[in-house]
Design brief:
heterodimer; A: 113 residues; mainly beta; 11 strands; 0% helix; 58% strand; globular; B: 113 residues; seven-stranded mixed beta sheet; four-stranded antiparallel beta sheet
């Protein structure tokens, strides 16, 4: 069974304190791994797509990396406005035009000033 | 990326009634999806809304409970039928323009009493 596990469930950082969020997956035929940010009361906001091991993507203070078993979302010198729930999702090869995403439960990041 | 709106943004309903949620995309999209997000749980795909054909439902979700319409390439509805308190959740619509990346609406927060 496909599984996406995110850790930690919650992370509290001081402003400027860099850290990483983890997304481990057990999926056969991975076609893409996605990171989203979700603020309270809002829908998920797309951040990155990673397609192959070794790939890296960056956006402002965020950098996503991918291996064959897991992805990391590195947050460098975070600010309070980076506080949100970060969701990881995978898309696997299931034939046809199926674009089903399987999500993890997310990591709630809180950055204190 | 597509901009997606949902109506209503929230509602409180009595058990046994039905609620129809609307999802509008600001451009024509190939695929639209409906998700459920329950507290402490990951986003779960309910169904893929296909334009011009029946929706494709995921395991555990049935058409009688969650009928879906997709009359054109920019609009879809999800009805939650014969509601019970267990249906209290956030319902999210997303769209894809042909690739696996999905963009989400703001969600509909449903409370069933």
């Amino acid at each position: 069974e496909d599984q996406v596990t995110q850790s930690p469930e919650a992370l509290r950082l001081q402003e400027g304190e860099s850290s990483s969020l983890n997304c481990s997956y057990t999926v056969s035929g991975l076609r893409g791994l996605f990171w989203y940010r979700q603020d309270p009361g809002k829908g998920p906001e797309f951040l990155f797509t990673l397609y192959s091991a070794g790939e890296e993507k960056e956006k402002e203070r965020l950098k996503a990396t991918l291996t064959k078993k897991e992805s990391f979302l590195h947050i460098t010198a975070p600010k309070p406005e980076d506080s949100a729930t970060y969701l990881c999702a995978v898309h696997k090869n299931s034939g046809g035009s199926n674009y089903k995403l399987t999500f993890g439960k997310g990591t709630l990041l809180t950055v204190n000033p | 990326s597509a901009v997606i709106s949902q109506k209503p943004s929230r509602d409180i309903c009595q058990r046994g009634t039905s609620l129809t949620i609307q999802c509008q995309v600001d451009s024509q999209v190939t695929m639209m999806f409906w998700y459920r997000q329950q507290p402490g749980q990951s986003l779960t795909l309910i169904a893929t809304a296909n334009q011009g054909s029946e929706a494709t439902y995921e395991s555990g979700f049935v058409i009688d409970k969650f009928p879906i319409s997709r009359p054109n390439l920019t609009f879809s509805t999800l009805t939650v039928s014969n509601m019970s308190p267990e249906d209290s959740s956030i319902y999210l619509c997303s769209s894809s323009g042909g690739g696996p990346t999905q963009y989400f609406g703001p969600g509909t927060r449903l409370l069933v009493l």
